[in-house]
Amino acid sequence: IRQATSADIAAIAATYEDLLTYEQEHGGDSHWELGVYPTIAVPKRAVPQGEMIVLEEDGEIRASMILKAQPAEYDDVAWQYPGEGEDVLVVHTLCVPPRFAGHRYGSRMVQYAKEYAAGHGCAVVRLDTYAHNEPAKRLANGADSASQGGGRIAQGLMEEEQVYLEYRLQSVSYTHLTL
Length: 179
What we know:
Elements: E1 2-3, H1 9-26, H2 41-46, E2 52-57, E3 60-69, E4 88-95, H3 105-119, E5 124-130, H4 134-139, E6 144-154, E7 158-168
Parallel strand pairs: 4-5
Antiparallel strand pairs: 1-2, 2-3, 3-4, 5-7, 6-7
Protein backbone atom coordinates (compact mmCIF):
# COMPACT_ATOMS: atom_id res chain seq x y z
CA ILE A 1 0.00 0.00 0.00
CA ARG A 2 1.52 3.29 -1.07
CA GLN A 3 0.81 6.81 -2.23
CA ALA A 4 -0.23 6.86 -5.89
CA THR A 5 1.87 8.56 -8.56
CA SER A 6 0.88 10.12 -11.85
CA ALA A 7 1.85 6.84 -13.52
CA ASP A 8 -1.04 5.16 -11.64
CA ILE A 9 -3.84 7.47 -12.81
CA ALA A 10 -4.99 5.42 -15.81
CA ALA A 11 -4.85 2.16 -13.83
CA ILE A 12 -6.92 3.65 -11.01
CA ALA A 13 -9.51 4.90 -13.50
CA ALA A 14 -9.58 1.43 -15.08
CA THR A 15 -10.51 -0.08 -11.69
CA TYR A 16 -13.48 2.28 -11.49
CA GLU A 17 -14.55 1.29 -14.98
CA ASP A 18 -14.15 -2.42 -14.16
CA LEU A 19 -16.35 -2.10 -11.08
CA LEU A 20 -19.03 0.02 -12.71
CA THR A 21 -19.18 -2.07 -15.89
CA TYR A 22 -19.62 -5.16 -13.72
CA GLU A 23 -22.37 -3.45 -11.72
CA GLN A 24 -24.19 -2.42 -14.91
CA GLU A 25 -24.17 -6.00 -16.13
CA HIS A 26 -24.80 -7.84 -12.85
CA GLY A 27 -26.29 -5.30 -10.48
CA GLY A 28 -24.33 -3.72 -7.72
CA ASP A 29 -24.21 -1.88 -4.46
CA SER A 30 -22.05 1.18 -4.98
CA HIS A 31 -24.65 3.57 -6.41
CA TRP A 32 -21.79 5.06 -8.43
CA GLU A 33 -22.52 5.63 -12.11
CA LEU A 34 -20.30 4.68 -15.06
CA GLY A 35 -19.14 7.85 -16.79
CA VAL A 36 -20.42 10.06 -13.95
CA TYR A 37 -18.57 9.14 -10.77
CA PRO A 38 -15.90 8.07 -10.21
CA THR A 39 -14.03 8.79 -13.40
CA ILE A 40 -10.44 9.52 -14.33
CA ALA A 41 -11.03 13.05 -13.02
CA VAL A 42 -10.89 11.65 -9.47
CA PRO A 43 -7.27 10.39 -9.55
CA LYS A 44 -6.24 13.31 -11.77
CA ARG A 45 -7.31 15.62 -8.95
CA ALA A 46 -6.25 13.47 -5.95
CA VAL A 47 -2.83 12.23 -7.09
CA PRO A 48 -1.18 15.69 -7.40
CA GLN A 49 -2.60 16.59 -3.99
CA GLY A 50 -0.97 13.48 -2.49
CA GLU A 51 -4.34 12.10 -1.38
CA MET A 52 -4.63 8.96 -3.55
CA ILE A 53 -3.49 5.67 -2.02
CA VAL A 54 -3.22 2.38 -3.92
CA LEU A 55 -2.74 -1.24 -3.02
CA GLU A 56 -0.48 -2.75 -5.65
CA GLU A 57 0.33 -6.42 -5.95
CA ASP A 58 2.18 -8.17 -8.75
CA GLY A 59 2.50 -4.84 -10.58
CA GLU A 60 -1.28 -4.32 -10.67
CA ILE A 61 -3.51 -1.86 -8.81
CA ARG A 62 -5.88 -4.00 -6.72
CA ALA A 63 -7.54 -1.22 -4.70
CA SER A 64 -7.50 2.54 -4.33
CA MET A 65 -8.83 5.20 -1.98
CA ILE A 66 -8.51 8.86 -1.19
CA LEU A 67 -7.29 9.92 2.25
CA LYS A 68 -7.80 13.55 3.14
CA ALA A 69 -8.56 15.93 5.97
CA GLN A 70 -12.24 16.39 6.68
CA PRO A 71 -13.95 18.55 4.04
CA ALA A 72 -16.53 21.22 4.92
CA GLU A 73 -19.34 19.05 3.49
CA TYR A 74 -19.01 16.83 6.60
CA ASP A 75 -19.56 19.71 9.02
CA ASP A 76 -23.34 19.25 9.13
CA VAL A 77 -23.21 15.50 9.91
CA ALA A 78 -24.09 14.47 13.48
CA TRP A 79 -20.81 12.73 14.35
CA GLN A 80 -20.43 10.83 17.62
CA TYR A 81 -16.82 11.85 18.23
CA PRO A 82 -15.36 15.34 18.24
CA GLY A 83 -12.97 16.36 15.51
CA GLU A 84 -12.86 18.50 12.44
CA GLY A 85 -10.55 19.56 9.66
CA GLU A 86 -7.04 18.17 10.04
CA ASP A 87 -7.84 16.25 13.25
CA VAL A 88 -9.94 13.88 11.12
CA LEU A 89 -8.90 11.59 8.28
CA VAL A 90 -11.60 10.84 5.72
CA VAL A 91 -11.56 7.70 3.58
CA HIS A 92 -13.17 8.49 0.26
CA THR A 93 -13.86 6.61 -3.00
CA LEU A 94 -12.52 3.25 -1.81
CA CYS A 95 -12.61 0.93 -4.82
CA VAL A 96 -11.80 -2.75 -5.20
CA PRO A 97 -12.63 -4.15 -8.67
CA PRO A 98 -14.86 -7.26 -8.60
CA ARG A 99 -12.14 -9.55 -9.93
CA PHE A 100 -10.18 -8.83 -6.74
CA ALA A 101 -13.11 -9.24 -4.34
CA GLY A 102 -12.65 -11.73 -1.54
CA HIS A 103 -8.93 -11.08 -1.04
CA ARG A 104 -9.41 -8.64 1.88
CA TYR A 105 -7.96 -5.74 -0.11
CA GLY A 106 -10.70 -3.41 1.12
CA SER A 107 -10.10 -4.44 4.73
CA ARG A 108 -6.38 -3.89 4.30
CA MET A 109 -7.03 -0.41 2.92
CA VAL A 110 -9.28 0.54 5.86
CA GLN A 111 -6.69 -0.79 8.32
CA TYR A 112 -3.99 1.20 6.54
CA ALA A 113 -6.13 4.35 6.82
CA LYS A 114 -6.59 3.83 10.55
CA GLU A 115 -2.86 3.27 11.11
CA TYR A 116 -1.97 6.23 8.91
CA ALA A 117 -4.40 8.45 10.80
CA ALA A 118 -3.09 7.35 14.20
CA GLY A 119 0.47 7.96 13.04
CA HIS A 120 -0.43 11.48 11.95
CA GLY A 121 -2.21 12.47 15.14
CA CYS A 122 -5.79 12.20 13.95
CA ALA A 123 -8.49 11.53 16.53
CA VAL A 124 -11.04 10.04 14.16
CA VAL A 125 -11.30 8.27 10.79
CA ARG A 126 -14.54 8.90 8.92
CA LEU A 127 -16.14 7.52 5.80
CA ASP A 128 -19.47 7.52 4.09
CA THR A 129 -21.17 5.09 1.78
CA TYR A 130 -24.45 4.66 -0.04
CA ALA A 131 -26.99 3.56 2.60
CA HIS A 132 -27.76 0.32 0.73
CA ASN A 133 -24.16 -0.64 -0.02
CA GLU A 134 -24.02 -3.68 2.24
CA PRO A 135 -20.50 -4.80 1.21
CA ALA A 136 -19.09 -1.38 2.08
CA LYS A 137 -20.90 -1.35 5.41
CA ARG A 138 -19.52 -4.83 6.19
CA LEU A 139 -16.05 -3.61 5.20
CA ALA A 140 -16.36 -0.89 7.82
CA ASN A 141 -16.91 -3.53 10.52
CA GLY A 142 -15.99 -2.01 13.84
CA ALA A 143 -16.91 1.50 12.80
CA ASP A 144 -19.54 3.37 14.74
CA SER A 145 -22.52 4.62 12.78
CA ALA A 146 -22.81 8.36 13.20
CA SER A 147 -25.91 9.09 11.17
CA GLN A 148 -27.71 8.59 7.92
CA GLY A 149 -28.45 11.37 5.46
CA GLY A 150 -31.23 11.20 2.93
CA GLY A 151 -31.24 12.90 -0.43
CA ARG A 152 -27.66 14.16 -0.17
CA ILE A 153 -25.94 15.07 -3.41
CA ALA A 154 -22.83 12.92 -3.58
CA GLN A 155 -19.87 14.80 -5.02
CA GLY A 156 -22.35 17.27 -6.48
CA LEU A 157 -23.14 14.70 -9.19
CA MET A 158 -25.90 12.41 -7.96
CA GLU A 159 -28.43 12.21 -5.19
CA GLU A 160 -28.07 9.38 -2.73
CA GLU A 161 -28.88 8.39 0.80
CA GLN A 162 -25.65 7.98 2.73
CA VAL A 163 -24.52 6.31 5.95
CA TYR A 164 -21.76 8.07 7.87
CA LEU A 165 -19.33 5.88 9.78
CA GLU A 166 -16.41 6.68 12.03
CA TYR A 167 -13.64 5.08 14.02
CA ARG A 168 -12.41 6.73 17.19
CA LEU A 169 -8.66 6.34 17.48
CA GLN A 170 -6.92 5.92 20.81
CA SER A 171 -3.78 7.65 22.05
CA VAL A 172 -3.48 10.47 19.57
CA SER A 173 -1.40 13.59 19.96
CA TYR A 174 -3.55 15.89 17.81
CA THR A 175 -0.72 16.97 15.56
CA HIS A 176 -2.05 18.08 12.21
CA LEU A 177 -2.42 15.84 9.22
CA THR A 178 -0.26 16.46 6.18
CA LEU A 179 -0.63 14.10 3.25
